[in-house]
Amino acid sequence: MDRKWWKEAVVYEIYPRSFMDSNGDGIGDLKGVTSRLDYIKDLGADCIWLCPVYSSPNVDNGYDIADYRQIMADFGTMADFDELIGQAHARGIRIVMDLVVNHSSDQHVWFQESRKGRDNPYSDYYIWRDPVDGHEPTNWMCCFGGPAWTWDAQRGQYYFHEFAAAQPDLNWENPKVREEVYDMMNWWCSEKGVDGFRMDVITLISKPETFEDGPVSAEGLRPDAGQYTCNGPKIHDYLREMHREVLSRYDLLTVGEASGSGVEDALLYTGFDRGELGMCFTFEHMDCDADEHGKWTMKPLYLPNLKRVMSRWETGLEGRGWNSLYWDNHDQPRIVSRWGNTAPQWWALSAKMLATCLHMMQGTPYIYQGEEIGMVSFNWQSLQEMNDVEEHAAWETYVDQAHIYTEEEMLAIISRKGRDNARTPMQWDTSPQAGFTTGTPWLPVNPSYKTINAAAQIHDPDSIYSYYKQLIALRKAHEIIIYGDYRLLEPEDEDLFIYTRRYEGQQLLVICNFSDRTRTLPDSVRALGPAPEQILISNYREAAEEIRPYEAVVYKQAAPADGR
Ligand code: TEU
Ligand code: CA
């Protein structure tokens, strides 16, 4: 196995706006992150994925970049960044930046120049098209709802945007654009010492040769642009060029956000022999509680589906590519609210069970800020309380325009699946505003902070925080967790997620109960002879014959001689 630091790392994702505010303006900042590095070190994470901190008008909270080499004023200065990366490196913690180069902000000087006309050096930095029959070039909808084309009167053309109109897509066909991106990436690596990139919607950068209308859905929804721009014709040419011009020159963690990509696509992006990326983030497991109409739908989780999807990735990449492992991030609702159980008697058990299920798998685990203390989704009462551009755009599409949902229905769906659930401030302690700020937070603090906060957990050996700490320590101590193979057992069981890992004659048997039902052990598992003395970690204090509600238990044993 080709050993790499990023295969053996545990990554902690920070959404700086909501992590820690150092100056009382209610907005998290870089000095705040630096002040909490010892907390991350104590947890055992050895790498931070820092969501965008670049200059931005914050239409999409930093995913709309106006200057790739300046720090956003809300977050501090470049000196603050230098201090953060210096303090992190001094603690053996690497820093991975969020690279957002499918699009920039419309306030970027490139776009401001490009829209001036068709004959300036920047005119082809973006995707401009003339009207077709007097309207947008295609009927595509952008990811946030609404048209994917916006008319610019100054230029006299439409420009394409996969996301908000304030996020015009860059034209990767233009070698000058690619050169600008590679120069910027090299600068962050060579001048600032960053240790890698999480690449925002990188699978969308290669657009199709022709732009044509797609079918409108039965509910009257226009086609989502992403289905026509995902895994485009030149995507691998671009990534191989990026690898040659930048990535191959440093020892970087690279992970591409790959919505719309399956295992076969992922092997092309991350195959050990491909010379492109190290890992990618799939969305396929995140779609297990949505129907064919997409994200803004509610479908109960059917565990065999989740097991099928995650196992497909575990076995599909085995020996050929490297998995990333996540439940939470800044775009997803809190997993313990989503697929765990927030009832007081089940909250901690189910959070630990979910953590066990993920962290015993093959791949690099990503922990999103607050996941390690079991933070829960927010109980939203109105659209006005929400900040996220995607939530507001979805409301406009599904309620105001297409009348697919009533306001009550949409509020229920956004409350369950909206991205702001992940963006309420980190809950540090029981002081006002959960210790996040001395001011008024930019997004409300979840009232759960009175009982769910880091201070209440870091010294409690039975806390969720301490359990995550154990999981990370086990990953560092047992190579089987990193390099072992993966095999799913009992695929059709609707409560139990059971799998094995094998490596050098040893076997892990991982049993996770996703339900509040007590279950007997399936015969196929009993045949493997799990015994109390083999228990590596469990979320219950005592061993038992049966599998109890939300129980997670991992046995370390000799692998069966006959390879069963
Ligand atoms: O996300 C891309 C993306 O598809 C998700 O934002 C989208 O919300 C999806 O519905 C998630 O279920 C990336 C960033 O992570 C996101 O924060 C940005 O808003 C987006 O790209 C545009 O940069
Ligand atoms: Ca601040």
How would you portray this structure in words?
It is a single chain. Helix content is 26%, strand content 15%. The protein is built from 16 helices and 18 strands. It has helices spanning 30-35, 37-43, 78-90, 109-114, 175-190, 226-229, 235-245, 263-270, 303-316, 335-338, 347-359, 389-401, 407-417, 464-477, 479-483, 523-526, and strands at 11-14, 47-50, 54-55, 67-71, 94-99, 128-129, 149-152, 157-160, 196-199, 253-257, 279-281, 322-325, 364-368, 487-489, 496-503, 506-513, 535-538, 552-558. The mean pLDDT is 97. Bound molecules: 1-O-alpha-D-glucopyranosyl-D-fructose and calcium ion. Calcium ion is lined by residues 21-23, 25, 27, 29. 1-O-alpha-D-glucopyranosyl-D-fructose binds at residues 60, 63, 100, 143, 163, 200-201, 257, 259, 295, 330-331, 390, 419.
- Unreliable sequence segments: none
Number of strands: 18
Tell me the overall shape. Answer: globular
Major pleated sheet: 8 strands, parallel, barrel
Relative strand content: 5-15%
Q: Count every helix, treating DSSP H or I runs of 4 or more residues as helices.
A: 16
| Overall average residue pLDDT | 97
> Which percent bin holds the helix content?
25-40%
Structural class: alpha/beta
Spatial strand arrangement across the major sheet? 1-2-5-9-10-11-12-13
Bound small molecules, which ones? Answer: 1-O-alpha-D-glucopyranosyl-D-fructose, calcium ion
**N-end to C-end Cα span:** 23 Å
Q: How big is the Rg? A: 23 Å
